[in-house]
Amino acid sequence: MKQILSIYINKPVYWGFTALISLFCLAFVLPWLFNISVLLSLAFGGMLLVDLAMLLGSQKTFIAKRFIPERLSNGDQNTIEIALENRYGFEVKISLVDEIPFQFQKRDFQIDTQLASNTTQNLQYTLRPTQRGEYLFGALNVFVSSPLGLLQRRFQFEKDKTVAVYPSFLQMREYELMAISNRLTDVGIKKIRRIGHTQEFEQIRSYVQGDDIRTINWQATARRNELMVNSYQDERAQSIYCLIDKGRIMQSPFDGLTLLDYAINSSLVLSNIALHKHDKAGVITFSNKINQTLLADRKSGQLHRILDMLYHQQTLFQESDYEALYIHVKKQIKQRSLLIIYTNFETVNSMRRQLPHFRKLAKEHLVLVVFFENTGLQNILEQPASTTAEIYQKTIAEKFYYEKKLIVKELEQYGIQALLTSPQQLSINTINKYLMLKAKGAI
């Protein structure tokens, strides 16, 4: 009975029944059509029985398996793989319907393919989550049709699997590989010119793409008959803190992600780079109160602790309390550190309300305030204005655009580092700023 309930009717069956009913109706007018209609009905019924017998084989006539990573990366394209195996003795047509988590809002997901007898096939598709949390995958439905194509049998596999979506660890790994191979310039990280060689000499090694040609050791190059460079060791064990504002100003959306999620992804990437530079990495999250604190460290497992901490961050849609942040930093962070504050300001006045707290922090630490460009305003500024309404909109957009520039200038007047960046360039620009401050010995 269970097998019978898994059988579904394809469109050709409805077309066949429609044609037979039409013939029987015509037989009232043309009696000679009656016998032909009966014969066609018997033939059509026989084909249905044959198709049913072909599909209702043994239990293991078709196998499918879905391979999902243990966790998905937020804001990135994640690959889902499906393995199909046809154990029927004939070629089958397949319609694959995967029950994707509701967060993706994909109601028309379907993959059609064909698979020869006793063969396997791997299919892939990608998903881009835009929220952290748990995602529930439903059943993997595979509808199989025989060469006759009248009926189809449904197979269900991999029911109800929950997968967690973490901050962008794929982006983190990409930058990690670039850092290890000295190829960060390939993704937009600038080469930072150091003021002299205050760093300690570490070793002589082979030249790789991205190395400064001024560090070539010509004597070693002549001996080895290949380019060799002097490698210098930066000052280590400096404390880097990512301070993430979770207030309502960080809930503005951009390309499916909120500014908070961009800040979380960037914090993970920067912490990983800092740990590879042998610095200490830590994270503090806050809104109307201090939420969580992970003190800077570079011990084994620190990156996993940062990842788990960032995974659980959610906004309370409250006004952020920078005075509470200053008091907390004063109590918890005793060593001079680089404090990277991820926040957002739309006007100079909104920044000035927090400026006294930034100045207090800057007396004891190196403070870098990171905030976001309004890319919607940028699009308005690039469009020509022809009507009065468009001129008005462009004028207002220019006002807000220059307000952002004024915020940078005013922060720098008080010795506070500032970074104005678009969300998609956040990680690259923040890493550039960190490497520049490190090269200057500002930390």
From TrEMBL:
Residues 204-369 form the DUF58 domain. It holds the Pfam family DUF58. It comes from the Bacteria. InterPro entries: DUF58. The keyword Metal-binding does not apply. The chain crosses the membrane at residues 12-30, 36-56. This is DUF58 domain-containing protein. It comes from Flectobacillus rivi.
